[in-house]
């Protein structure tokens, strides 16, 4: 039962229009949440990818700068390995490195020496003697200290523009040169425009300097390093070529800018990989990433930002898809449950209509049953009173009819005699009728005295009452041992008496009448039967015979009022039993009836 | 028995004239000469019995359902009265209620006879009452 009511509750929930709205609202909320979560997921994925990419680029730049520094240290090693490195040896070294193929971005690797004003003239002479008559230290002018690029490979036309250039004269270069000299480690300059640049494809550049000292100098402090200083091994970088080489086929989804220092402005921008970042791209702050790296004593700020169209990648459609599909499902569910609710309402209304009709019909029926019971009751009372009070006058009629018959028979003419006969017969039949009617109504009116009834005694008593009829018909009445039942002894005797009396009355005139009373018991239900070998009854009439005043035969064939079986039925039903007939015409009849067995106590 | 039976005195307490006539008719067949007195109700019966110079009857036929005093009351009074207690009283009534029958015998009715439904049967019963009480039985002497 709890499962049924649970199911019913489920049905009520899902067949409710409110549920449809609730589910719609919930569904939209869930869809919105899913959309938001997936959006965030997509953007987080994008950010992760972005960050990963920036880390790759950052690492590549740092690595490349270190590797390039190593190449320069190789140059330093070359100078340390021999007393005097010739222009030819330097050229060989740089040629072996094959800058153009393996070290993109290096415009040239060179060697620059410091020159004091005192040394200047001799220095110029010495270089010119190597076969460069035009050589001089540029720019011209008097300065407290000079430097000069003496070697620069590859010594092509572009690099030849830098030959003899005094880098110390330029503040940006000087800072890095001094730092390298004083610290003993590599030093990268700020942004410069290389001397080698022409008007075409001007790139920003920088220089990385490595200091070269006397092998036996005291390099433990700045003063010592200055005293032992011999020159700078350096490389000139064009930032565009260098970064292009680092990134290979491009930076993927990510663009970046490199600023020298920490201030992000156009002057400080060393390099930009693609288009300038637009406001729309910069807007999602999670996609702008600033990283500071140390490049040989110089701080570079890397500004990463996504390429235009980065967010419009394939992943972006997922949240939209979720939102659209989710909303579609939400509305479909809403429609479905609304439809269910509508159908349920309709079914409920129909059911309610039917129920109320049924209820009013039932109420009508109850009223009618009550009326019927009352009228039935009244009828029984009436029948009782009527039959009881009819008895007295009837007794008079019958008695005086008899008296007439006795005293005055023979005093009338033939018709008078016949009429007297009718009078007497009618009076007696009416008497019998009234007597039976009284008996019948008494069964309904009288309280019945419940008790244990030994049917064997009842049988004997009934047979004794019927003795005259039994002797007249020469019937043989037999019985099995009968049970003790619960009931009203007088009424049950009436039943047995009526049934036996009927069995005798409707006997077959062609052979001796035999009546047998038997019983069987199942649980506490006793089934009794009265079986005869009489004329039998057509099964068609099996029910009709129990109706009061129903007679199957004419009055002149068989006497009787037609009340006997109605009395039997009434008595048995008052005992909560059943009475029925099994019979075939000519095959005898068997009346069965049930009674409750009396318990042991 | 050739000694001619003497005259018998019978009191019938009965309110229904039809029954009175039937009883009279029934008594007609008796071998004894029966003088029938009739009281139409219980009080009348007692009054008649107790009137001065009244000859007590040999037999009383007493209905139960009577006006004023019913048969049971009359029976009880007569059976408590030493003057009448010896007179046999036969209840003659339509009632077959066991309560009536029992009460009658408890109050010392001498017999209880139900009025038969048919005339022939009724006469037979009257005849048998007369045959027993007036012809067979020996009654207390006057």
Overview of the structural elements:
The complex is a heterodimer of chains A (601) and B (142). By secondary structure, chain A is an alpha+beta fold. Chain A has helices spanning 2-14, 17-81, 87-97, 99-102, 120-129, 157-160, 171-183, 222-228, 239-247, 279-282, 317-408, 414-445, 455-465, 467-473, 489-505, 564-574; strands at residues 106-115, 146-153, 187-188, 205-213, 229-238, 254-260, 269-272, 289-295, 298-306, 451-454, 476-479, 484-487, 514-522, 525-532, 579-583, 589-596. Helix content of chain A is 52%, strand content 18%. Chain A has a five-stranded antiparallel beta sheet with strand order 2-1-5-4-3. Chain A has a five-stranded mixed beta sheet with strand order 11-13-14-16-15. In chain A, a hairpin with a 2-residue loop joins strand 8 (289-295) and strand 9 (298-306). Chain A is rod-shaped. Chain B has 142 residues and is an alpha/beta fold. Chain B has a single domain (8-136), classed as Response regulator (Rossmann fold, 3-Layer(aba) Sandwich), CATH 3.40.50.2300. Chain B has five helices and five strands; from the N terminus they run E-H-E-H-E-H-E-H-E-H. Chain B has a five-stranded parallel beta sheet with strand order 2-1-3-4-5, sandwiched between helices. In chain B, strand 3, helix 3 (71-80) and strand 4 (89-93) form a beta-alpha-beta unit. Classes of the chains: A alpha+beta (601), B alpha/beta (142). The interface between A and B is medium-sized, with 16 and 13 residues.
């Amino acid at each position: 039962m709890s499962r049924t009511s649970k199911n019913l509750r489920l049905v009520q929930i899902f067949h409710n229009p409110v549920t449809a709205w609730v589910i719609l609202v919930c569904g939209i909320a869930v869809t919105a949440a899913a959309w938001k979560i997936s959006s965030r997921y997509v953007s987080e994925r994008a950010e992760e990818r972005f960050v990963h990419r920036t880390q790759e680029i950052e690492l590549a730049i740092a690595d490349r700068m270190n590797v390039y520094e190593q190449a320069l240290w190789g140059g330093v090693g070359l100078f340390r390995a021999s007393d005097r490195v010739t222009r030819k040896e330097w050229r060989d070294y740089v040629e072996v490195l094959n800058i153009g193929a393996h070290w993109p971005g290096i415009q040239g690797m060179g060697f620059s020496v410091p020159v004091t004003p005192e040394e200047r003239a001799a220095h110029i002479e010495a270089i010119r003697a190597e076969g460069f008559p035009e050589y001089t230290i540029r720019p011209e002018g008097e300065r407290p200290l000079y430097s000069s690029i003496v070697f620069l490979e590859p010594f092509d036309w572009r690099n030849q523009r830098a030959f003899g250039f005094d880098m110390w004269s330029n503040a940006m270069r000087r800072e890095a040169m001094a730092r390298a000299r004083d610290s003993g480690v590599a030093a990268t300059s700020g942004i410069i425009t290389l001397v080698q640049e022409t008007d075409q494809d001007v790139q920003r550049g920088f220089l990385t300097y490595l200091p070269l000292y006397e092998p036996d100098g005291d390099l433990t402090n700045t003063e010592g390093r200055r005293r032992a200083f011999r020159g700078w091994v350096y490389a000139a970088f064009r930032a565009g070529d260098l970064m292009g080489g680092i990134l290979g086929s491009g930076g993927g989804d990510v663009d970046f800018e490199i600023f020298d220092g920490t201030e992000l402005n156009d002057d400080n921008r060393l390099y930009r990989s693609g288009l300038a970042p637009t406001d729309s791209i910069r807007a999602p702050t999670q996609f702008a990433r600033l990283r500071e790296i140390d490049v040989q004593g110089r701080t570079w700020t890397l500004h990463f930002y996504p390429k235009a169209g980065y967010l419009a990648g394939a992943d972006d459609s997922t949240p939209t898809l979720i939102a659209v599909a989710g909303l579609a499902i939400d509305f479909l569910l809403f429609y479905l449950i609304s439809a269910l609710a509508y159908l349920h309402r309709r079914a409920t209304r129909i059911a309610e209509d039917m129920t109320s009709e049924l209820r009013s019909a039932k109420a009508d029926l109850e009223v009618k049953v009550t009326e019927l019971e009352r009228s039935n009751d009244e009828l029984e009372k009436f029948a009782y009173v009527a039959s009881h009070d009819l008895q007295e006058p009837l007794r008079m009629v019958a008695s005086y009819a008899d008296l007439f018959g006795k005293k005055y028979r023979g005093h009338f003419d033939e018709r008078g005699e016949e009429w007297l006969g009718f009078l007497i017969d009618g009076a007696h039949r009416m008497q019998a009728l009234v007597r039976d009617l009284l008996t019948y109504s008494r069964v309904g009116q009288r309280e019945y005295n419940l008790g244990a009834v030994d049917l064997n005694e009842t049988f004997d008593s009934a047979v004794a009452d019927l003795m005259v009829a039994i002797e007249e018909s020469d019937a043989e009445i037999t019985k099995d041992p009968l049970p003790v039942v619960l009931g009203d002894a007088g009424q049950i005797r009436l039943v047995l008496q009526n049934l036996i009396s009927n069995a005798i009355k409707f006997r077959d005139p062609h052979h001796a009448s035999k009546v047998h009373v038997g019983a069987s018991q199942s649980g506490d239900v006793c089934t009794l039967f009265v079986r005869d070998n009489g004329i039998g009854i057509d099964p068609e009439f099996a029910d009709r015979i129990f109706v009061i005043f129903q007679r199957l035969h004419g009055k002149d064939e068989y006497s009787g009022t037609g009340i006997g079986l109605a009395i039997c039925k009434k008595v048995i039903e008052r005992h909560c039993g059943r009475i029925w007939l099994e019979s075939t015409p000519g095959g005898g009849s068997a009346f069965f009836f049930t009674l409750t067995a009396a318990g042991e106590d | 028995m050739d000694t001619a039976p003497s005259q018998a005195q019978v009191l019938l307490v009965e309110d229904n004239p039809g029954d009175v006539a039937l009883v009279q008719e029934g008594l007609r067949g008796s071998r004894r000469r029966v003088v029938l007195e009739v009281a139409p109700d219980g009080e009348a019966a007692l009054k008649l019995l107790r009137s001065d110079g009244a000859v007590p009857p040999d037999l009383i036929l007493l209905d139960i359902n009577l006006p004023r005093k019913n048969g049971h009351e009359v029976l009880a009074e007569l059976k408590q009265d030493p003057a009448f207690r010896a007179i046999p009283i036969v209840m003659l009534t339509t009632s077959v209620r066991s309560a009536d029958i029992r009460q009658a015998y408890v109050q010392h009715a001498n017999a209880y006879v139900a009025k038969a439904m048919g005339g022939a049967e009724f006469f037979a019963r009257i005849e048998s009452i007369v045959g027993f009480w007036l012809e067979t039985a020996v009654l207390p002497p006057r």
